[in-house]
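explain this:
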Amino acid sequence: MLSNAFAQNKNPLSLVISSATEMAQQLGITLLANTEVLAVHRDRRKLDTTVGTLDYDKLVFALGADPVQIPVQGDARQDIFSVNDLADYSRLRNALGNVKSIAIMGGGLIGCEFANDLAAAGYAVTVIDRGAYPLGSLVPQQAGSLLLEPLALLGVTWRLGTTVQRIDKAPKGYLLTLADDSNVQADLVISAVGLRPPNSACRECGLTVNRGNCCK
């Protein structure tokens, strides 16, 4: 919902379907909010937490995901926006009021959704992706290429087959230096290159980690 909330003119609060307390009541679960797990004792099936020790029969790791951070150079790499939660979305909405041009790193599903919605709202959007066509990891080239012209007609500029190497502050906005030695000027930069599960807790418990999955 975060990637198309802007097109639907939804503010962060309107994206909340129900509160955590309401959801817990509906599902009949005990919710320990503002509680951190400090240690997992698999041999004794116990958790050390900030509210005490808990016993368990079965333990599920459902830790969500963190945005993939592209290792770009430059003095403005900390200014890249990633939208992965309501706080991120709120910051982006506030920033959009002062910009005209937007660079999006990533031509996958989320990147294309952002490009479509922002271009339709009148922003000048440039999508940068290392692939030869959009949605490269999801669909064949014939299908992905069908997105090129419709989004271009909305005002999206495609920069495919290259990646962002540097992001530097410019007199106005940012200057992106690409791997093909070309440049892109933008007032705001969004990263939409995917998510990565935070598997450190699984590894600390001695679990084998696949692509997002914890295994025995």
